[in-house]
Amino acid sequence: MRGLSKSFGGVRAVSDVSFAVAPGEMLALIGPNGAGKSTLFNMVGGQLPPDGGSVLLGGDAITGLGPRAIARRGVGRTFQVTATFGSMTVRENVQMAILAHHGEVWRFWRPAAERHRAAADALLAQVGLAAQADRATGVLAYGDLKRLELAIALGNAPRLLLMDEPTAGMAPAERVGLMHLTRHLATERGLAVLFTEHDMDVVFDVSDRILVLDRGALIAEGDGPAIRADPAVRRVYLGTGATSGGH
Amino acid sequence: MDSVLPQLLTGLATASSLFLVASGLTIIFGVTRIVNFSHGSLTMLGAYIGWSILTRLPRDPAWFALGILLTALATALIGVLIERVVLRRVYRAPELFQLLATFGVVLIVQDATLWLWGAVELPLPRPRWLRGFVEVAGGRFPFYDLVLIAIGPVVLGLLWLVMNRTRWGTLVRAATLDREMVAALGVDQRRLFTSVFALGAGLAGLGGALSLPNASANLGIDLSVITDAFVVVVVGGLGSLPGAFVASLLIGILQAFGIVLVPKITLVLVFLVMAVVLVFRPNGLMGRPQAEAREAALAAPVVRAAPPALRWLGAVALVLAVLAPFGAGDYYLTVLTDACVAILFATSLHFMMGPGGMASFGHAAWFGIGAYAAGLLLHWAGAPMPLGLLAAPVAAGIVAALFGWFVVRLSGVYLSMLTLAFAQIAWAVSFQWVEVTGGDNGLLGVWPPDWARSPRVTYWIALALSVGVALLLRRALYAPYGYALRAARDSAARAQSIGLDVARLRLVALVIAGAACGLGGAIFSYGKGGVFPTYISIPHSVEALLMVLLGGLQTVAGPIVGALVYTGLADLLVRSTDLWRLVLGAVIVLLVTAFPEGIAGAARRLWLRGREA
Amino acid sequence: MAVTRRLVLGASGALAAPGLLRAQGGAPIRIGEINSYTAQPAFTVPYRNAMQLAVEGVNARGGVLGRPLELITRDDAGRPQDAVRLAGELVNDQKVDVLAGAYLSNVGLALGEYAAQNKRLYVGGEPLTDAMVWEKGNRYTFRLRPSTYMQASILAEEAAKLPAKRWVTVAPNYEFGQSGVKWFRQLLAARRPDVQFVGEQWPALGRVDAGATVQALEAMRPEGIFNVLFGTDLTNFVRQGNTRGLFERRSVASLLTGEPEYLDPLGDEAPEGWIVTGYPGEMIDTPAHKAFASAYRGKFNAKPMCGSLVGYALINSIAAGIAKAGSVEVERMVEGFRGVRFDTPAGPAEYRAIDQQGTLGVYVGRTALRNNAGVMTDWRYIDGKDLLPSDEVVRGLRPASAS
User: How many other C-beta atoms can be found within 10 angstroms of the C-beta atom of residue B145?
Assistant: First the structure.
């Protein structure tokens, strides 16, 4: 990302933010509420067009493309409020993603249920949902839904995965489990992960690097110990009173 | 130039009348999210009750005002009754299902009004003061129309005070923004809904009663009011009172001047306005984007292939259907042919409405376009039936593609109303373009060739085509495309994030649905020997909705069951009683309250009971 | 309220009471009748009542061909496609011998088309469209009531006597309104080349924006107004017109407004001095009409409406046609109906052989107020045969296949 900026009605939500994320790297994006994390995310994911700057994926500019085009170029994402396909089983959710990835959407004849079943099951096994494959998503526990979202995102075989508050609403033990799983997948697949997170324990536990955003600007960047020691970060967080624990 | 001022004032008076009815509708929709088809019926009841009260009171202005207020109170009470008895039972049903319930109420009210007040229209005798006029620009302008012009803003002001200066109004506004939030705050939602419905119904009754000095209480009010009111509400932005007011002014004034400039525009003017507004402002003039319908996505259960037993049942039914001509008389064969057409009509709507998530209020447009394609080809080019049956889906599909480009960018009720607007425009073209379409007399002589003329052959052709197309649609729904379409409905954001082209998926769904429906229209025309604008009328579109909702949105068999039940029920009732609307309405209301997921949906639930976690 | 209750209780179905059948030997001759009972109840219910009265009358006189008549009615809900389906039911399932009915023109045309296609006899009572016996006429379709052309022609004749030169028209935007205006303009212009038509208004049927329509007409400063609005549209139009002074010092010719169905609801606001076609009801003092009116009043405790006259005459015309044919075989009935003469409360009439149009006539007169209610005055009855164009013209209008 180079010099990304976005304003809403004269308010600069994100200004001139640049950073990079490497394959296999877990990069956390933190900052107090209103710091511009979601705006930044949505610009990378294509939900919002940036006013300035550029987003490069493996050397290609994807700036300003729509979310669909960005997804097709290998950017997966999960949402803060879980979004799965409620009228499908867990397995079908993943199959859908794999079908989309293979460009097999515009087929009107062969039943979808048998396509990529094994691949879907393998992904579900990786995220620990193998036993739930035939259930409706509506009956899943919240933590399992988050895992499912991860599996859907992986179904698109992304190079970069964007995770917006992946652990929001989860019990602390589940959070660690999910993020360790992500960590493991990132390493195994050489997947770059950019995530936002309120829970500092999780952030310091799993991330390779941390970006701190405040009022739209990048104020610090570094590994866990460096960020902990950074005076600007301490000022922002102590000033707002928010530390850890999420919502 | 003399005529501009009176025409403008006349437009303002029309606008006030529109606003009175539309304001109640928009308040009800804002809070309860119910598309209340019975709002026009409440207006009609207001006119009749107003007539009954006012003809018994002294004819002075003060008594008149009192009578009007009493009428508003009475209709408010009727609104409470409808809300408590019918709607309260279906709030938890999937989106739009309440529409079905309110349509049942429309039918019941029609016959009840006929029974109570009789068939003849009832004008309120006007005392002298209601006939008075003032001089405006050298001409006479009715005093009462000036009163109406004042009443609109006064009502808007009073509503604004209620909404902004009372705790109840605060709750209503909050609920309009976020229903779940208000529920979470511990507000008694039932009482809130009942009171909102009462207010809306009271406003409808007020509008009906206030129309009396210029019109009469008659049985056509319900349907003429409901379409206008919906247009105003949608143009203004759902749930927005100021929006409804501005839209009323826009439509009232455009109408007043429009008929001077283009006298024949009357059929279509309001729908043109709505279409233009929605194309440029997808949420109406002053509406907010609707919150992503969370509950709708969650409410949709998993679609699974039919269990083997059901497939066997279907196969047996099909065999029986094929053999039917050997047992049924000619008339029952034509009813079965109609049922086949109804299956096409309903399954095609279900395709875009269920898996596609686009509820069309104008599905009859495709039916009519297909019918006219076949009829016009025969009429002007002598094209034989096979060509007509081919041209119908092609024509409907092409028009659907053109018009779909506008539609798929919208969502929810706005999308539904834009489809309604397009259907009305198509209807107006068929109605008005007399030289080509034959106008309301229609195209006659659209009969099959000799080899296909016997009811038996006609039926087999209809059966083969409708079952064939229904199976194709089913096949597509279980294919990757159908999954992707459902994915786009369940969560558009998620669908895009895995690379699905949501708009194109929906557009293709619309084209497929339009083409299949167009084929149905052509088959129907050959069965009836003619094509008429009534094929595209609003009640026909509503029939498609009834069939789909009766059967249930969530199963592929639902629309088929709905089509068969509706066709059978309607035929049986029409032939056995003059009160068929009352009985049909009551049956619909009962079915809706008993099976909020539709007949097929309820059967499925019973079947699955205990089989699924 | 008698009318209302009759509507509610009188479900569709066979109206001939079993008791009436006992006297005659043979199986009944069945008339299957389709009409817009729920969509247009104000007109169709008095019509159905009178049909019932006529059936009883015919049966009391010994029926037709020694067989009683039986009437089966169906509701088309105002939709031609439903009418066609029900025609199939009546023919195939109820085995009716004659199809009858329709109020709306498109329903009448659809039934005529069905009749031609399936070679069944269809007698339309009320539909007014000229196409039914002319452009779209066919061998199997007869129509009783004076058509739009006939009604418009007498109004044009009367209007030609007036000094008014600047005319405007207002009509509902559908076929009836369109052809009413077309004929009136054509026939008036033929009689009075000095007449100008300076404007027109076409409100949607049942949805007139009366204030704006009246204002638009007023702005055209006409001397004469030709109106085809009826029903609720007419009520709204007259009220706005009265208040805004549209009709003052102007001539108005108005189609159908003299029918009590449309005149009565206007109450004390009924316009005065309009030239109208219609039905003077109990003011008609011919013996035939008096007998009809008193029998109707006796049975239904209501005055006969224009629809009643049509319904009564329709049944009697069918009885006469079958009697003349001497059979209920379709081709013989067609021949029998052609040129058959029959009595109606308005006077004798016939189905013309040339175009199968009935010669039931038109009452034309002027509106007036009596006891705060609108009535027709100075009315006269014009036999339908005097209102039709010449035989050559008619032959040119009718398709060759219709013979």
Answer: 25
Structurally, what CATH architecture does the domain formed by C149-283+362-386 represent?
3-Layer(aba) Sandwich (3.40)
Q: Decide if A79 and B493 are in contact by the 8 Å CB cutoff.
A: yes
| Helix axis angle, B455-478 to B330-353, nearest 10° | 20
Query: Which amino acid type is present at position C52?
Result: Q
CA B19 and chain centroid, separation: 20
Q: Does C7 touch chain B (CB under 8 A)?
A: yes
Distances (CA, A) of C98 to A19, A236, C293: 88, 92, 26
Is A52 inside any structural domain? yes
Of B305, B490, B505, the CB nearest to A85: B490
Dist CA C137 CA C395 (whole Å): 11
Using the beta-carbon criterion (under 8 Å), do A79 and B484 form an inter-chain contact?
no
Locate CATH 3.40.50.2300 in chain C. Answer: 2-147+285-361, 149-283+362-386
Interface test with C, best of B59, B228, B441, B566 (most C CBs within 10 A): B441
| Domains of chain B listed by start with CATH number | 4-280 (1.10.3470), 331-536 (no CATH)
- B499 and A72 within 8 Å at the Cβ level: the answer is yes
Give the residue on B whose Cα is nearest the Cα of C94: B331
CA distance B521 to B372: 8
Round to whole Å and give the CA distance between A34 and A32.
6
Flag whether residue B496 sits within 8 Å of chain A, measured between CB atoms: yes
Q: What is the C-alpha separation between B448 and A35, in angstroms, rounded?
A: 70
**Helix segments in B354-454, DSSP class H:** 364-381, 385-407, 412-432, 434-437
CATH number, domain with residue A2: 3.40.50.300
* Chain A residues within an 8 Å CB radius of B478: 111-113
The secondary structure of residue C93, as a DSSP letter, is: I
CA distances from C95 to B318, C90, C122 (A): 29, 6, 14
Domains of chain A: total: 1
Q: What are φ and ψ of residue C85, in 5° steps?
A: -60, -45
Question: How far A239 CA lies from chain B's nearest CA (Å)?
Answer: 30
For chain C, 403 residues long, give each residue's pLDDT as a single digit of tens.
333 433 433 344 444 444 444 444 579 999 999 999 988 888 899 999 999 999 999 999 999 999 999 999 999 999 999 999 999 999 999 999 999 999 999 999 999 999 999 999 999 999 999 999 999 999 999 999 999 999 999 999 999 999 999 999 999 999 899 999 999 999 999 999 999 999 999 999 888 999 999 999 999 999 999 999 999 999 999 999 999 999 999 999 999 999 999 999 999 999 999 999 999 999 999 999 999 999 999 999 999 999 999 999 999 999 999 999 999 999 999 999 999 999 999 999 999 999 999 999 999 999 999 999 999 999 999 999 999 999 999 999 999 888 7
Interface contact flag, B490 A87, Cβ < 8 Å = yes
Structure tokens that stand for C172 in this block = 């509902």
Domain that includes residue A38, residue range: 1-65+160-166+192-247
Prediction ipTM score: 0.91
Q: Do chain A and chain C touch with ≥3 beta carbon pairs under 8 Å?
A: no
Chains that touch B (3 or more CB pairs under 8 A): A, C
Query: pLDDT for B31-76, tens place per residue?
Result: 888 889 999 999 999 999 999 999 999 999 999 999 999 999 999 9
Say whether C235 and B216 touch across the interface (CB within 8 A): yes
Q: Which candidate from A79, A95, A101 shows the least CB-CB separation from B499?
A: A101
Nearest to B578 among C38, C178, C264 (CB): C38
A100 inside domain:
no
Q: Which two tokens stand for residue C132?
A: 């039914």
Q: Which fold has domain C2-147+285-361?
A: Rossmann fold (3.40.50)
Query: In chain C, what residues touch B580 (CB-CB under 8 Å)?
Result: 38, 75
